[in-house]
């Protein structure tokens, strides 16, 4: 007899000591940007069993997104949030999703942060490719959320920043350097699915550390080409 979504009580059996289910059940995740890193973050959150999640992205799937962002050929032309939501639901049919096919705006932040379940802890995953947008997101949400993570990548280098006390975090704002100091062009102009997947895994690792009451690593940088890892 095949199992139905309602009978899959052991889907998380092997992760329960690592991802405490009672704490996960209290979380509402907001993934802003579902490109190279954000799509992988969303899929991993769905797989671990997050109950409530919002996906935010204005973009449509293009052919150039297939290899580095793991979209499918049949997704071309679809909204990225819709294509990502479809896979999330296949992983976790009971997940409650809210989709925002728009750019992040301060005026929409309150709705994005509102869970569709009884979740009380809000976790934001910023996966955008603009320093200006990162700053806007931080200013709009850091006083309202319990956990914040930011994933950045360029080719085969990545950086993951995490905060378990966003309202009082003094380190993260120092990483929001002026836009003119950033790489020329989008930071994901050169990207690979494996770099995005590793960055997403690092973000989920910090998230689960927070769930367990462990201190998070606030600044992690990895160069895959030289295999250099720096943890700050």
Q: Any overview of this molecule?
A:
By secondary structure, the protein is an alpha/beta fold. It has one domain: Rossmann fold. The chain is 28% helix and 20% strand. It has seven helices and eight strands; from the N terminus they run αβαβααβαβαββαββ. The chain has helices spanning 21-24, 38-48, 66-69, 80-91, 109-112, 131-141, 193-211; strands at residues 27-32, 52-56, 96-100, 121-126, 147-154, 157-163, 219-223, 228-231. Strands 3-2-1-4-5-6-7-8 form an eight-stranded mixed beta sheet, sandwiched between helices. The longest helix has 19 residues, at 193-211. The N and C termini lie far apart (50 Å).
Overview features:
232 residues; alpha/beta; Rossmann fold
The backbone outline, from C-alpha atoms, is globular
How many individual β-strands? 8
Largest sheet: 8 strands, mixed
What's the Cα radius of gyration? 17 Å
Q: Give the CATH level 1 class.
A: Alpha Beta
User: What fold name stands as the CATH topology?
Assistant: Rossmann fold
Low-pLDDT segments, ≥5 res = 180-186
Query: Separation of termini?
Result: 50 Å
CATH-scheme architecture:
3-Layer(aba) Sandwich
What is the strand arrangement across the widest sheet?
Answer: 3-2-1-4-5-6-7-8
**What's the number of domains?**
1
How much strand?
15-25%
CATH superfamily assignment?
NAD(P)-binding Rossmann-like Domain
Question: Helical segment tally?
Answer: 7
Q: How confident overall, as mean pLDDT? A: 92
Structural class: alpha/beta
Helical content (DSSP H or I, runs of 4+): 25-40%
Query: H/E order of the elements?
Result: HEHEHHEHEHEEHEE
